[in-house]
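A brief tutorial aside. Many learners find it easier to grasp structure tokens once they have seen a single protein encoded end to end. The record that follows does exactly this for WGR domain-containing protein. Read the sequence first, then the structure, and try to relate runs of similar tokens to stretches of the chain.
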Amino acid sequence: MMITFYRTAADGGLRYYTINDRQGHLFSRYSFTATWGRQLSSGREKLYSFDSAEEMERKLKQIVKQRLRSGYKVLYSYFGKSGIELDEVDSRRRSPSASQRSSSIRNWDSSAPVVRRA
């Protein structure tokens, strides 16, 4: 399972919040990790561990609701075979509109030099 949220901060930069269960916990069968910060690959991290799948799902739903109320939007979600269903995530997932896709293509400057580093 993996859910990534994003929002625009007051300074104009992006903030990310990611929840995943890729890393197992040594002492608990039910766990997930939350990371947040200015970049997807780094920032702060917190590990949550639980005694049951029900507890884990309850906490996961609580965090998702908090993030959505705080203005975060769903960037990416994948649940695989986890069996967890979060209606909040599915209803908030939006694909870019045709005008947004075409504007990003229009903003690309083909004459700009490509810098490659060895």
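Self-check: The radius of gyration is 17 Å. If you spotted this yourself, you are ready for the next section.
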